Amino acid sequence: MKQTLHISVGALVEYSLLSGDLNRTFFSSDRPIQAIRIHQRIQDSRPKEYQAEVSVHHLVKTDKYDLQVSGRIDGVYRYPGRAVIEEIKTTRRPLVAVREEENGVHWGQAKCYAYIYCIHNDLNSIEIQLTYYNLDSDKSTEIRRVFDITELEEFFDSLVSKYLEWADTIIQWIKLRDQSIKKMRFPFEQYRVGQSKMLEEAESAIADRAELLIQAPTGIGKTMAVIFPAVRSIDQGRTNKVFYLTARTTGRNAAEQSLRILRNGGLRLKCLSLTAKDKICFNTDKLCSGDDCAYAKGYYDRINEALRDAFGQDSFTRDVILTIAQKHKVCPFEFSLDLSLWVDFVICDYNYVFDPRVYLKRFFQNGAFDYVLLVDEAHNLVDRSREMYSATMHKNSILRLKRHVKTRLLHLQKSLARINSWMIEVANELPKDENYEAKEEYPSDLCQRLREFTTLAEKWLLLNEQTDFREDLLDLYFDARRFLSTADRYDETYATCYTKAGKDLTIKLFCIDPSQYLREVLQKCAAAIFFSATLTPMQYFVKLLGCSEIARTLSLPSPFPYRNLRVLIAGKVSALYKYREFTKHEVARMISAMIDQRKGNYFIFFPSYEYMRMIHEIFQKRRPRVHIIMQEPGMSEPARDRFLARFSGRTDGFLTGFAVMGGVFAESIDLVGERLTGATIVGVGLPQISLERELIKNYFDNVDGSGFAFSYQIPGMIRVLQAAGRVIRSDEDRGVVLLIDTRYSNPPYRLMLPQEWRPLFVDNVDKVGTVLQDFWRR
User: Distance between CA atoms of 457 and 481, rounded to whole angstroms?
Assistant: First the structure.
């Protein structure tokens, strides 16, 4: 049976016809909702003979394989014996210039559609209409031409012929890849406890095109347990691309390492790790255009050769991408995006799939596809997605740019002044005793002023003039576009937050419940597997991650001997805010009692920096011989690395790291063996009371009465479980966890603790010492 290769009409045309410079200066693709609405408005205005969104497919047969070319025509006028193909394009360019300067890619796409339509409708000729809509003037122009079938066939065949050289490479690769997958075996002699079950459930979910949520503690081998069946599903025809989504460098490294192990066993698989643009760009101080950057100049003239060269390798890490991009003088970020079309496995941040601003439109904009999503540390996606679908404007940013352009761009200065005036009025209307307020309706007057600003800003930005305020203008332009785009989806799941800080005013369109938008993405994929050490309670995550009601769940116990971990609960010491002054000395005594029983390295986790500093001051006086290091807000990556390097292994003294729950040291770090002896967790990790948390609480109270649990309790306990999970990281590890707070005695909190912990309640410091002396003697 011959292999079938699939390609869209757009990709076919761009591969053969796209040339010249890369131009990503500012607004190439940041308004999908606006463009969709304009398309729909034009389509709705057409007569009854018009059919919108017409899907077409054409199979090109070769001796070695078949090429399936498909796409969707914006609209077709159907008349007896004839037809008109319409493609709709939005533009900022003057319509006169559009008519005078033909766009070869636009006409090429329309001609391919026309040819396929003629073939499948027995037409000898057809008319093509390109409709251009100007976003500034709200006017359109139509360009019509008639083509006969012979001319269209020659054009289509020339594109296919050029593409088939590349297709030959792809087909040869697919055969080699699939043969290696068939021979692939699990890379270890035996499964870890729970790993086999996790792998089986993941494989079943992919086969059944289902969603699966897995809670699997450290040590099970989660990464390999999801990657192995996902890779196998490629050869089985269940998916054509796997996306491994992770929020942290440690997650990316784990995925790359797992694939490296499989490749060492003979697997051939092309894997790409996407790196953020600002971390891979050669010229961060230049605009992404041919006029300013040598790597954008002539990009499309060199990209195909760069892709052919890259195909000699299988692993595309950041360093590999940089090397190939430098060799062919192409933008490394855009090169990695173009390469993503042809690889089998993509490792990237959540936002490349879910964020409406930066998601990979080439994969997720239209239709449904056979992609498999593997979502690592999925508990982080809830709050991350809230930010993805929210947007913010700051008065100070408006005022700063207004001062910059005051004497040079008067029209922009006036527009910014109108926005600033509106913000001053809003700030003055806030309650006198409050610096914040939330409203159900979105600020329509502000949106009107922002639309005026973006229109004027784009006209100036198109001139590509270099000034000292251009970067500030670009930043504000993007902020405004994001705000307007978010306003377009504003509904009952949103609230508008107004916050005053000094002379600044922040207006935020806050997405309280992003589940419907996550659901839209999941519906476009074949299967999705969410996994983490903390997905408790499961129904909370099923709901907020946008999963279907029939999503599957799996919860696995720790693979490590329960006797290796001793969990104590100091359930008579309150960590409630109102009691902290009264209990702070007892908290310090409890911490001292834990570390006094054994020399080693310890973490002490707190719900806030303020509380951490309060206890640190007391603890330092009680234990002056203990070496203490403290997490600081906004630590740089080198500073974080130096902090963790102090936990180097066995010590003859005491090292105590004071840190905050939910921070960089409470998740996704491995301190194996004697690098970490124990941890104290003070409080139940509740997020601080804030306007946004209260909005979440009120929203879910109205939905099903789960407001406090969804807004505070569950997110807090996830922080607790993540922090405690730093202690036992391998079969040989032994360690202690001390939980301090009266709330651990209450069922809602106690029931979220893993059963295998078997916690012991301790009433006083003497009991802590006695229990731990016995534990360390064993």
Answer: 11
pTM assigned to the model: 0.91
Query: How many angstroms from the chain centroid is the CA of residue 403?
Result: 35
> Quick count: other Cβ atoms within 10 Å of Cβ 406?
13
Q: For 533-652, where are the E strands, in sequence order?
A: 552-555, 565-570, 600-606, 627-630
Scanning the structure block, which residue is given the tokens 């993503």? 340
- Let me know: does 611 contact 682? Beta carbons within 8 Å: yes
Pairing outcome for strands 760-761 and 565-570: parallel
The set of residues, in sequence order, having a beta carbon less than 8 Å from that of 39 and lying 6+ positions away, is: 74, 88
Instruction: Go through the chain and tell me how many residues it has.
Output: 778
CB 486 within 8 A of CB 391: yes
How far apart (Å, rounded) are the C-alpha atoms in residues 233 and 225?
13
Q: Comparing C-alpha atoms, which of 415, 399, 386 is closest to residue 508?
A: 386
Q: How far apart are CA 247 and CA 276, in angstroms?
A: 12
Q: For residue 519, what are the β-bridge partners?
A: none
Instruction: Read off the tokens for 66.
Output: 């078949």
User: In this predicted model, what pLDDT tens digit does every residue of 80-117 receive, in sequence order?
Assistant: 989 999 999 988 788 888 888 889 999 999 999 999 99
User: Kind of pairing, strands 82-91 and 65-79?
Assistant: antiparallel
Give me the residue label for tokens 């122009």. 141
**Is the separation of the CB atoms in 259 and 315 below 8 Å?**
yes
Give yes or no for a contact between 679 and 729, defined as CB atoms under 8 angstroms apart.
no
pLDDT tens-digit series, residues 556-587: 998 888 899 999 999 999 999 999 999 999 99
Task: Measure the CA angle with vertex 669, ends 666 and 671; round to 5°.
Answer: 110
660: enclosing H helix or E strand: strand 654-660
Token digits of residue 728: 């036992």
